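Dear colleagues,

For the upcoming journal club I promised to circulate an example of a predicted protein-ligand complex. I picked one with 8-OXO-2'-deoxyguanosine-5'-triphosphate because it came up in last month's discussion. The inputs are reproduced below in full, followed by the predicted structure.
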Amino acid sequence: MTAVAAKGPGAPFLHVAVGVVVRQQQVLLSLRASHQHQGGKWEFPGGKVEGAETVLAALGRELQEELAIRIEQASPLMQIRHQYPEREVLLDIWLVEAFSGEPKGMEGQQVAWFDISQLHTLVFPDANQPIVARLQSLFT
Ligand SMILES: Nc1nc2c([nH]c(=O)n2[C@H]2C[C@H](O)[C@@H](COP(=O)(O)OP(=O)(O)OP(=O)(O)O)O2)c(=O)[nH]1
Ligand SMILES: [Mg+2]
């Protein structure tokens, strides 16, 4: 069962597996559909952790479903707890250092590679700012 959205301290939060897929100095992003929560913003691909799944298993499943790639090597990068007005999320963020297949938007979403040095020009969900900062310090 997926944790449901609710407000306030101690309330259930949404556990989200997030993949920072890197290749050379670039990172892969997907555009969230306008009808989604935080729609119209660029995201790191991923999605909700389901049931008893590990975060890495959830990430593998989501990257397969959304991009048709298979993770070959990944390591934990950071966690971010963020309270949106509508819901609280725990982003479990992994660096995906190797993968097989060529990513494509399997759910009709726009996907693109961006130079890490250009990430500051894009609009991300509010929770993501620390990820962008970390990547810029790691890759420059
Ligand atoms: N994937 C992803 N989600 C993010 C990022 N930043 C951020 O705040 N989120 C939030 C937005 C959503 O509230 C939540 C992800 O939930 P979601 O509903 O899109 O997950 P999902 O892919 O399982 O979607 P679905 O199958 O239910 O459509 O995490 C990010 O960089 N990537
Ligand atoms: Mg998703």
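Two points we might discuss: The longest strand covers residues 70-83. The helical segments are 55-67, 129-139.

See you all on Thursday,
B. R.
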